[in-house]
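Researcher: Sequence of Large ribosomal subunit protein uL2 follows. Predict its structure.
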Amino acid sequence: MGKRTLVRRRGRGGKQFRAIIVGKIAPAKYPNFKLEENHKGTVVDIVHERGRDAPLAKVFFDDGRYSYVPAPEGTIVGSTIQVGQGSPASKGNILALESVPDGTLVCNIEKNVGDGGKLIKAAGSGAIVFAHGAEGVTIKFPSGKFLTLNAKCRAMVGTIAGAGRKEKPFLKAGNRAKYMQARGKLYPTVRGIAQAAVYHPHGGGRHQHIGRQSSVSRNTPPGRKVGNIAPRKTGRGRVKEVPQKA
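Model: Prediction complete. Tokens:
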């Protein structure tokens, strides 16, 4: 009797495939202030949270509450962060997109008004406020994609700190494994054709080959649903032959 494929075992939701919750500090999001309010906060500490590549800034606000936000580049202990419409568009301040001039780098952008920041939170990332319009504010992401958001959505001016994170190699597979485990990512990944026949539908054989068609239907049973699922087109495109003149 065959065994379940790795995809099916991960889908069960076992603890060996879930992100580790040990070492988590607090949700990294803005405090729930009203848009018309103006507040000031002081960075009292810069901490690291497991599974997060960017540092977190612990901010003490003037209303007596603490919040953790992704630290923008240049943040130090004692830095001042202003929140509200009356805040200047300077590095580290949090204000609505409608108050941010075009061409400004922003990070930790709210996707919906009041969600505390969902976009551009990875280390070294930053987006550009591209244009203001009647339908909202258009943001250009590092990938080149454009997205129009509600003008009331808040963002932090600047880029996220920790831009050099990817420049240092892991050097050892164990370090890489711990990095992936903290994020609930699959590591290492093994090709289906490199596995035994009992572990994957593409496994087995005298040499590494799939042995059957790699395209499967969208209604294929879970144990066989691997490869190209309901593809529109696979393989090389056919070149139409042009008849030659005699």
